[in-house]
Amino acid sequence: xxxxxxxxxxxxxxxxxxxxxxxxxxxxxxxxxxxxxxxxxxxxxxxxxxxxxxxxxxxxxxxxxxxxxxxxxxxxxxxxxxxxxxxxxxxxxxxxxxxxxxxxxxxxxxxxxxxxxxxxxxxxxxxxxxxxxx
Length: 134
Fold this sequence. Notes:
134 residues, mainly beta, Immunoglobulin-like, 0% helix, elongated, disordered C terminus
């Protein structure tokens, strides 16, 4: 699979995020790999929270390479322990990875736990074709 076809856009949830340092974020979510598994596109993310979170679900929008909305879905990151990295994978059925143009985290659908007050996310990617919008 060629990752050069990807323009993965992860959008910040708050305008404050761009101006603050990483230590101010509640959690960092990084797109680590994109892998084709037969008819499924698997997106793998690493996640690290500063404080434990009981449950984190993000509203996620997938766009095709022309910029049209392909799918609106929820990515359930489950519980996140404090200061420990976790890997979460999401399978997009009936989808070729090369046909995904952008991934947008539209907002927090659900956050449970004391760390969720004023919860701020930082997004990144290990893929060189990442475009971060704010």
